[in-house]
Amino acid sequence: MAFLLGLLSLALLARLGYLQLIQHGYYARQALGNQVQGRKVPPRRGIILDRNGEVVVANRAGFRLILVPEQVDDMAGTLGRLAHSGILKREDQSELVESSRRSQPFEAIPIRTGLSDELIARFAVARHQFTGVDIEGLLLREYPLGAAGAHGLGYVSEVSAEDKERLEPEEYAGISHLGKTGVESSYEDYLRGSAGSERVVTNAHGRPLSRTREREPEPGADLLLAIDRNLQAEAYAAMDSRRGAVVAIDPNDGGVLALVSSPAFDPNDFVVGMDREAFAELSRNIDRPMFNRAVRGAYPPGSTIKPMLAFTALTAGHRDAGHTINCRGSFRLSGSSRLFRDWKREGHGAMNLHDAIAQSCDVYFYQLAREMNVEGLHESLVQFGFGAPTGADLIGEAAGIVPSRAWKRANFSDPAQRRWFPGDTVVAGIGQGYLTVTPLQLAQAVAQLAMRGRRYKPRLVEAIRDPAGGSLVRMPPVQTGTLAPEAVEHWSTVVDSMVAVVHGPLGTARETGAGLDFRIAGKTGTSQVRAMPQDDEEIPEEVEERFRDHSLFVAFAPVHDPVIALAVIVENAGSGSGAAAEVASRLLETYLAGNAPPDLVARAQ
Amino acid sequence: MNAVAAGQGAGVLPRLNLDGWLLVWVMLLISGGLAILFSASGGSGDIMLFQVSRLLIGIGLMLVLAQISPRFMIRATPWAYGAVMVLLVLVLLVGEEGGGARRWLTLGVRFQPSEFAKLAAPLMLACFFHGSRERPDFLKTLAALLLIAVPAGLVISQPDLGTAVVIVCFGFIALLLAGLNRKYIYGSAALGMLAIPALWVSLRDYQRERILSMLNPESDPLGVGYHVIQSKITIGSGGAFGKGFMDSSQAQFGFLPEPTTDFIFAVIGEEFGFVGVVVAMLLFIAITVRMLQIAFAAQWRYSRIVAASLALGFFVSFALNAAMTTGLLPVVGLPLPLVSVAGSANVTFLAGFGILMAIRSDRRYLAR
After folding, report:
1. Are the C-beta atoms of residues A272 and A223 closer than 8 Å to each other?
2. Which residues of chain B make contact with A12, given a CB cutoff of 8 A?
3. Domains in chain A, please, with CATH?
4. Predicted TM-score (pTM) of this structure
5. How far apart are CA A440 and CA A446, in angstroms?
6. How many domains does the structure of chain B reveal?
7. pLDDT digits (tens, 9 = 90+) for A501-544
8. Which residues of A make CB contacts under 8 Å with B?
9. Which of A9, A18, A19, A205 to mutate to test the interface with B (most CBs of B within 10 A)?
10. CB contacts, 8 Å: A26 with chain B
11. Is A51 exposed, middle or buried (0-12, 13-18, 19+ CB in 10 A)?
């Protein structure tokens, strides 16, 4: 009996000695690991200011609900109760169960961001029912411009499963949101900053008892934009939910003053996570609000490219300014029955280059195009930056198409189509046919006209504020081209004719000019969405809306010391002298009122 | 037997039929236990009050039982046994349900009748074997087994595996002390081996999980293995000398489950280290040894069986709890005698000491 008793005691003694003496180090570490957990401290994402220092992207304090799967006793039940109390959306449940399976041990999974005060209160009251679920404070992105800034500034959304696959774990550790489009995306590496770390002593329920900072988080860099907040807002308002785009550039350095694609969406919705239904609706919308028309939309430029072609014709000697043709309302290639109509059926009569631009004579440019030939047109358009992305600091820019013989060979499989036809050249002369440009390219080309040949790479961000020192690092403008600066006379001819478009007695935008109290240089454009029937009378009202012509207008001002160049396109809005010119003049007025020297406005009158 | 002699003389204690050594060890254990409980409960007044009140009830019962003569006890035993069986049946019928089990009965006060069965079973066996001098034969053994099986079965049905195991231990110790034939011992051991698969099938899911978790607790660190892992961490992190009184991080921050009840032994280990648990162990051994001394000195067969089985039962209760807390045995939910918050169990243990003191004071208990 005593033997058994002793044996039992010895076994216990041995066990205790093993645990407390031999394995003490191991268990001491385990006990410490119980209480002390390393946690990432999210950095402050850099804010974004406009050219006048006004905040266009800010951070605000928000809350989100997080869940630590290891601390949840009954996952299905907990999620069910959360859904029942309206804190969680029912359809998100299965997704959360899935992501909780894939998460790192003790990783907190966000289950709902951007809780309203009411939901937070509702959760706080019922907190005891939700072991393992907690409220966490965090900084959320705020876009005061709303939809107006959506396509230029972009938006952030929560780090997704795809992001995690793409990025290294240390890149997003402690980071809740990543930039998805616009400046938020292209400057992600600057804005993000890097997470700090801290050691948190917690109790068994994960409630922090004390914290020790190991490494401070490094805040992201603030960005200073070229964008003018007021102009950006005004541009979106002027578009009035119509489909189209506006790009305004400071021609002196390529700074993008406004970049609008319409219609748009509210980027604030993405910050807190959009529910599936709303997102599907946004994606399905026939007006494609998610599509950035300003940099990805490829449109036939119509007559807006006439000044560029005219300048090349002058410098290359295809035309001199005094040469006059007689416009009878149509043009026919020799040996062909195809008739190329002028927009003015009765014709413009005697036309020199100045008048041909001012009155947008198509026949003049049909003839010019045939003489310059496809090679000449291609060279001219490439010199003005068409056919290639501008290299602006935005992701996903389209290149547009400047057609050539080689391009046609490469892009058509049908042998009958692969040949370049003389007719292809003719329509290119008035910015139709295969030629497509983005609104950004068009604005860049107009800025180049305004600067008499000097071209700067468009950019949204002008300066980056070093988060450590607080000093502002300005980025010098990047000049990407100089086109015949010595041809002062030719530049003057073209610019004068563009002034006449707006202010001349027969200018296509003279109605717009009449309302302006300062002088601008502009050019209207009306681009066809489909080929106009040869004979039938075209009645715009009867055309299904989306087959109507696009309305385009490009302009810069002031004429002699330009501070703004812009391109406006309003889809299916008919003539360029209408909708687009109206938007453009309103924006020029807005911008010059605030930015031109006061005497300049007076002088122009 | 010097220790026994020390209790002799004309002091106050013998006149009150109390055993000095047993009293000293028990009071030391109770005081130390209350100190540990104060720390483990985070200084909770409610828990302390509950524990102290139940201990006082137990001490009162001990003082009363110490005055009863073993001869009266023999006569009362069958009645007491019967009463406990009735209570156990009542638990199953009208017991309070909680955590998937019916263990509590409220008759004026709320208590666990299964704890009383720990006393009733060995007492009943002792009573059963008292009359005959010879070794129990097969039929007698079978009858004795039945006397153990009835309360054990009723307790398992609650279900309360831990307490049932202890009841069986108490009963078997009594059976062995009655001079059970070795044949039967080996036979029942073999039967027990065969019974394991059958028992396994009859266990509830959570009971099975507990056993599996004991075999490999790390396989599911936050599931059923959590208790054992945290308990081992708690004890192991205490080291040789412990973290100091009231400095148990594992218990204070809630990592150790049930720090005031089943896992209080781990708190001793964390706060006072290896030294602390060895001292605690020595106290339990001292109490057991003193009880055995009383048993060996007893002249009546009944007294001997009762005293020895209560002594060993007490030690087994301690050893099972310590083995559970250190991860040697599956966690089945047993209190650490006189230290854990466990009202009925502590009252029962103290009552047992009272019975021992009564045996010690019996005039047939010869001083040589």
Report:
1. no
2. 281, 319, 322-323, 326, 328
3. 38-198+211-225 (3.90.1310.10), 229-463+474-604 (3.40.710.10)
4. 0.69
5. 10
6. 1
7. 999 898 898 888 888 888 999 999 998 876 544 445 555 554 56
8. 1-2, 5, 8-9, 11-13, 15-17, 19-21, 23-24, 26-28, 30-31, 34-35, 70, 202-205, 209
9. A19
10. 236
11. buried
